[in-house]
Amino acid sequence: MEQDASHPPNDYDLSTAISSTSGLRQGLTSYGDAHFSLFLRKVFVKALGYSEDALSRPIIGIINTYSGFNPCHGNVPQLIEAAKRGIQFNGGLAVEFPTISVHESFSHPTSMFLRNLMSMDTEEMIRAQPLDACVMIGGCDKTVPAQLMGGISANKPVLPLITGPMMPGSHRGQRIGACTDCRNNWASFRAGEIDIEEISAINEELAPTIGTCGVMGTASTMACITAALGMMPLRGASAPAVSSARARVAEETGANAIIAARNKWKPQDILSKESFLNAITVLQAIGGSTNAVVHLMAIANRNPKTQGVITLQTFEEVGRKTPLLVDLKPSGDNYMTDFHNAGGMLALLHTLRPLLHLSAKTITGQTLGDILDSSPFREFPLSRRIIRPLSDPLYPGSSLVVLSGNIAPNGAVMKASASKDRALLSHTGPAVVFEDSADLAKRIDDPNLEVTANSVLVLKGIGPIGNPGMPEAGLLPIPRKLASAGVKDILRISDGRMSGTAGGTIILHISPESALPESPFGIVQTGDLITCDVEKRKLSLDISNEELGSRIEARKAVFAREAKPKRRGYRGLYERAVNQAQDGADFDFLAANGGSSN
Ligand code: FES
User: Fold this and answer.
1) Which of 69, 104, 107 should be mutated for ligand 1, with most atoms under 8 A from CB?
2) What is the pLDDT of residues 554-590, one digit of tens each?
3) Of the residues 180, 181, 212, 335, which should be mutated to test ligand 1's pocket, given the most ligand atoms within 8 Å of the CB?
4) What is the pTM of this model?
5) Which has the closest alpha carbon to 460: 522, 398, 375?
6) What is the CATH number of domain 57-167+210-374?
7) Distance between CA 564 and CA 136 in Å, rounded?
8) Nearest to 177, CA basis, from 219, 146, 138
9) Where are the alpha helices (DSSP H) in 353-447?
10) Where would I find the Dihydroxy-acid/6-phosphogluconate dehydratase C-terminal domain in this sequence (predicted)?
11) What CATH architecture does domain 407-556 belong to?
């Protein structure tokens, strides 16, 4: 056997126990003989050409989520190369490995259905393999939450590296970009305002480069939140996917991984209540996606320190103190490239400084306050147009609100700042109920549908269990007869989610969802009066408690008679284990306490 004299292999000295928790010696495969396990591991890793010197370095994993079905991750190969530079210039050994990759438009029934699976893949592969730290490359909506959830549960040093937003496109001299403009233009097409040639031309320009959606949708929201949690460089939230800045963030992440590995900075030690309060402050200030509420609950519940400490009520409390400052679609007018050029997260956090918990730790070993102190930001006119000062916000407070009432005893969420008709924020109207997505598709454009602009559209059956993955179907289309009469917004309610790029007066995540027999939301009938009062944070069905109770009992009896057989496979696991939106729609057994109610 060839030997490197400078690194004599003592791993096979049978008189010495193998007890290391780092490098190649950690997490040995179980053969009942640790020395043989290490011997065999080295046999196989040497097939890849590694020397003893290389194998003696800190091993930094890089999760490769490149996929031909994920254009939001189209730059992953370049990011891997740049991250490897950062790792290897600083004395580590970079080893890339795959996990599943999930894109919004290529995931049936929904990407959210696969988020928990991706988090399990991420957690178990980080835990199973001999890594001292791990760079997790994600970007598209569900990938970053999945990686944070899995990384926190694995609890080895993890460093998110985000693919970054796409550039905006152009149509007839106007900037357009996925995906707020996808939805606006599609609504115009449905209303007959633009023709088939124009919608086809728009389709060519909405995603002109690789990268994540270029507005403050879920992907951009999660990127900003990840930076606010202290888990990645601030520029990493907004540098465009195709920019040289993005590659430099990747190199910096690789270098940071070596420091985190040497210091064993684990996510459960870094992330505290204060980290999450900062993240929620940023979420409110950027007018972020409602999906982020579900994701942040799932992420917080993976950490024993924050499970049960961060709740839906926390979003409400932070929201009341935090104005909307960032003028990006869908709440405002601009794109992620504008946010980046205006100073991005560094400018935003300097602006939000009085509202932040500056002692929160970050993955660099510095506190958030240290980072802001060492990176002063000088304002310029563009920055103040895109990132407003606290004294001149875009929306005074609570971009995202948490509502509750007799049909949502465990809560519901609304992005009030994205309402297109603010009068609907205080509204009473008769319900027009659709029992599920198929019922909606069949009847929404029926000319005989009894609906007016005063109606409240209700869609059931799209909660975590009801339509696995809680699809982004909460943006119910405006019935064609109303749309062509010029109605731009209508109050809509569901137990599902909505794309972060969408807007309108829309109440989401109703809990408990209608698929549960005891759900009060499940008993809403067409013609019932529903009141939404955002000021009072109330959502209620105007019927008596007795009527509500007797409808629920009658519905439970129907469920008992029509019990469905258990499904097999991942879908069966999903239906049995997923928890409700207010807990993050995670699997109960993956939460920090394993789903125990104690
Ligand atoms: Fe991937 Fe929008 S589809 S971020």
Assistant:
1) 104
2) 999 999 998 888 899 999 999 999 999 999 999 999 9
3) 212
4) 0.95
5) 522
6) 3.40.50.2300
7) 39
8) 219
9) 368-374, 381-386, 437-443
10) 386-585
11) 3-Layer(bba) Sandwich (3.50)
